[in-house]
Backbone:
């Protein structure tokens, strides 16, 4: 089940050649024949919509969008929702995100958000569905195959990652 806003048919992200606030993003090959994209978020404004647009464009380029079936559309919407939650959490709880990394090997899509925070993200327990706020990591946990946190010894911050299954 996805709860992202409905996209209009043909909404494939930013128009090619349109003026954009996003920096140029290099695309490189991943070791297993997949693709990896990185977006620097450190000095950007409008970070959450920027991250969603960047992710939507990657999904389009990788053939997830436009979705031919309801299941494929739901998978893409889930990815966009998880990106929103991870980036929002970095904004609210971790001194802001530094970088969004998206990798896809054809079977699994991995999202990584690197931030400057020292906290440890975790779903709130008990989860209270009727209350506002506090649902981000619960949503990530429910939609993803797996998620976790990686810290580099001697370096500030962390990378929160989440993996979702590619659509069949």
Residues:
């Amino acid at each position: 089940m996805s709860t992202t806003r409905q996209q209009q048919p043909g909404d494939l992200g930013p128009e090619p050649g349109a003026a954009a606030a996003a920096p140029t993003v290099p695309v490189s090959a991943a070791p297993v024949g997949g693709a990896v994209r990185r977006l620097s978020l450190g000095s950007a404004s409008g970070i959450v919509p920027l991250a969603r647009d960047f992710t939507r464009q990657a999904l389009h380029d990788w053939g997830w969008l436009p979705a031919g079936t309801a299941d494929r559309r739901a998978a893409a919407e889930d990815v966009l929702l998880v990106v929103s939650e991870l980036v929002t959490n970095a904004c609210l709880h971790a001194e802001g995100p530094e970088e969004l990394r998206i990798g896809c090997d054809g079977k699994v899509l991995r999202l990584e958000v690197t931030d400057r925070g020292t906290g440890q993200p975790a779903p709130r327990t008990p989860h209270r569905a009727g209350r506002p706020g506090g649902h981000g990591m619960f949503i990530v946990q429910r939609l993803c195959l797996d998620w976790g946190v990686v810290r580099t010894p001697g370096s500030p911050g962390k990378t929160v990652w989440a993996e979702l299954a590619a659509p069949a």
Notes: The longest strand covers residues 97-104.
